[in-house]
Design a protein that fits this description.
CATH architecture of the largest domain: 3-Layer(aba) Sandwich
CATH class of the largest domain: Alpha Beta
Largest sheet: 8 strands, mixed
Order of helices and strands: HEHEEHEHEHEEHEHHHHH
Number of strands: 8
Helix content: 40-55%
Number of helices: 11
Oligomer: single chain
Shape: elongated
Structural class: alpha/beta
CATH topology of the largest domain: Rossmann fold
Length: 261
């Protein structure tokens, strides 16, 4: 493919996600310059010695390290980007941090792409759904799609993709944490298989009306459910299970109750 012969992609962070993206891009024909101070670059990558080295000559940089070092990584590498290249941040960070990164890039005259990874990367690699927003979103999407990536461009500024991802995270990761805690408690009580069957049955029976029913019921029965989750919190404590999610549910229902007893 002609594009792959001329496209150079710098990847900062070669852990689970960065390593999978790097391998997928290299397999698709991209020239990948990878840098990670703790992980060696794979055989199909050009091993860079720093963020600046990875960005040198790159058409696109993918920062896939950690939110805590995203600003530092950008400041270390963005000066080496050729004119017209794009800096893309794929870290799970707050919308505010993404906007801060966009400001730094704008000060340097570099288009910025806020990229949200919407599913686990290992396995699907480039087929994992990506949401992209910001001034460099369209160009980043064009480059990544040229290698088979699954990218949806959002019409909006940096921070929009992060917002979309994190809103889903509140729901999905919160639900997952509650399930894990409930199964731990059920195991301690000797009913893990039964509860697992209940959970599977609930998921199987879910339909279009499920969300409306859950939301309306939560508000309507907030008083009773506050007491119910207080009892559940006490039970988990007695079982030796830390009631993190149960206590949070108790407190949320209490907050929703306009007339606490």
């Amino acid at each position: 493919m002609e594009q792959s012969e001329r496209t150079v992609i710098g990847v900062l962070g070669l852990g689970e996600a960065g390593g999978a993206f790097s391998a997928g891009l290299a397999a698709a024909g991209a020239v990948v310059r990878g840098y990670d101070p703790a992980v060696a670059a794979g055989p199909d990558l050009i091993a860079a010695t720093s963020e600046s080295d990875a960005a040198t000559g790159a058409d696109l940089v993918l920062s896939v390290n950690r939110s805590a070092v995203a600003v530092e990584a950008m400041e270390s590498g963005i000066g080496s980007l050729p004119r017209g290249s794009v800096w893309a941040d794929l870290n799970t960070a707050s919308p505010e941090k993404k906007r801060r990164l966009a400001e730094i890039a704008e000060e340097r005259g570099v288009p910025f792409a806020d990229v949200a990874i919407m599913a686990p990367v290992p396995g699907p690699r480039l087929q994992v759904p990506l949401l992209v927003s910001g001034s460099g979103a369209q160009r980043a999407a064009e480059l990544l799609r040229g290698f088979g990536a699954n990218v949806e461009v959002l019409d909006g500024p940096a921070g929009l993709a992060a917002t979309r991802k994190l809103l889903r995270s509140v729901y999905f990761k919160g639900m997952a944490a509650s399930i894990v805690e409930a199964l731990e408690a059920a195991r301690a009580a000797g009913f893990e298989d039964l509860l697992r069957e209940n959970i599977i049955a609930d998921f199987t029976a879910a339909g279009e009306s499920t969300v409306d029913r859950i939301v309306s019921g939560t508000y309507q029965h907030a008083v009773r459910r506050t007491d119910e989750m207080a009892a559940a919190t006490e039970m988990l404590t007695d079982l030796g299970v830390t009631p993190t999610m149960a206590a949070a549910s108790r407190d949320l229902h209490a907050h929703l109750n306009p007339h606490p007893r």
